Amino acid sequence: MQLALDLGGVFVFGLSGALVGVRNRLDVLGILMLAGLTGLGGGVVRDVLIGSVPPANLADWRYLLVPALAGLVAFRFHPRLSRIERYINWFDALGLGLFCVTGAAKALQFGLNPVAAALLGMLTAVGGGILRDVVAGRTPLVIRNDEVYALAALAGACVVVVAWETGWYAPWVAVAGAGVCIALRLLAIRYSWRVPRAQSPD
């Protein structure tokens, strides 16, 4: 279940990165690079921080194949996709949800405390998107316009952490945590929810 969720997150994040490349009119190599950065970046950062060396998504060929497939799918079929930005947001929300729960679960398996595990779940979810946006010349979503992005990932990770600490963790909990994150992110997009920010003094 962990592997399936992880590879699912790699694919949908890879697809979101590839679609950004398509929108920026990159060539096929540029699209594949963005797909790889988006799909694998957060997991690499997570594994390095918890001491899983080499990172699992670089040691296992499946983790390298999946974002490449996502990039090729976007490159081949993008003329049939309309309203690309909308699809990017959908796929990004799906990847966010999958990665926040797998990141938190792996951190817990490595013995991290609940707070650290929740934060690493969030970092796993947002890391690839940050790399994608920086390389594509965009302001990262995690800091753009006070969007509910990292907060949604943290909420999904907390579902996993609480269930783990109370002895209720099961595969369905990971799915539920991902669902909480995805729902929060999509509702935030739909209703323009924003995280409160400090007002600068006049």
From TrEMBL:
Q: Domain named Glycine transporter: which ranges?
A: 4-78, 90-164
Task: Write out the entry's keywords from A to Z.
Answer: Cell membrane, Membrane, Transmembrane, Transmembrane helix
Lipid bilayer topology: Multi-pass membrane protein
The family classification in the record reads: Belongs to the UPF0126 family.
Q: Which residues cross the membrane?
A: 6-22, 29-49, 61-78, 90-109, 115-135, 147-164, 170-188
Entry protein name: Trimeric intracellular cation channel family protein
Q: Where does the UniProt annotation locate this protein?
A: Cell membrane
Q: Name one GO cellular component term.
A: plasma membrane
